[in-house]
Specification:
Blueprint: H1 2-29, H2 32-58, H3 73-101, H4 110-137, H5 140-169, H6 174-201, H7 208-221, E1 227-236, E2 239-248, H8 254-271, E3 275-283, E4 292-293
Helix pairs in contact: 1-2, 1-4, 2-3, 2-5, 2-6, 3-5, 3-6, 4-5, 5-6, 7-8
Length: 295
Amino acid sequence: MLITLKLATGSILIGLVVLGLKMLAYYLTGSIALYSDALESVINLVTALAALTAVRLAARPASHRHPYGYHKAEYLSAVLEGVLIVLAALSILREAYFGFISPKPLDASFSGLAFNGLASLINAAWSWVLIRGGRKSRSTALEADGRHLLTDVITSAGTLAGVGLVFATGWQVFDPGLAALVAINILWSGWRLVKDSVAGLMDEAVAPEILTRIRHVISTHAGGAIEAHDVRTRHAGRMTFIDFHLVVPSTMLIAEAHEICDRLEGALKAEIEDAVTTIHVEPENKAKHSGVLVL
């Protein structure tokens, strides 16, 4: 968790540096496309702050009011990021519209393009660090922040190419045109981010391949039981919640059934990192005979 907090804090520092470089690039060139790129960096900084808050909140232990913990705070951060991305895109489209109506000549500043290119290289390196770190720590907020930065890198590359075309051809329409394309790409990125985060808030089940692994662990580590049924899963940040019914012989002692449950919980935690398992034990006459058979 300490590494996660360090990455979230690092995103704020990186965001400040990148924002300064891109605003300088816009100031030197007057390009609407570069303005759109700088505006997205403002959003990056705001969402980095939200990600840090979410990561710190998700690290808090469960409480009386929140017995399942605060892990979903990371999904809220990702939803906020998606909404802000959409708002930024709409602002860029507004500027692009006025740029089409009243095109303005750009200042052919090589230093402005160089500053923007340097900012994009920094974002590219940091996005890789965030995505890798987010996957390793299973932090939704960090991985979402990294993917957003990667989108920023791609749009920045297109923006630089478009501004270069304006300087090379003298056609001012390339500048607002590229800004509009950047805005559309940002809108798509924001929609995907909101969609994925809302799925987590709605307790979406784990991926089919992970569910297969869970069912296999139950089948091979529940010796003494008869079957398991109604296996259900959900994500909450980096945590994976698993619950199911375990059918045992009617004559089995409570202590024996409890030992099987302990064994299953340990095996599932070893297979699925940060798994939280809840098992409901049932006597044999309640069996559905339609679940996971024990090998």
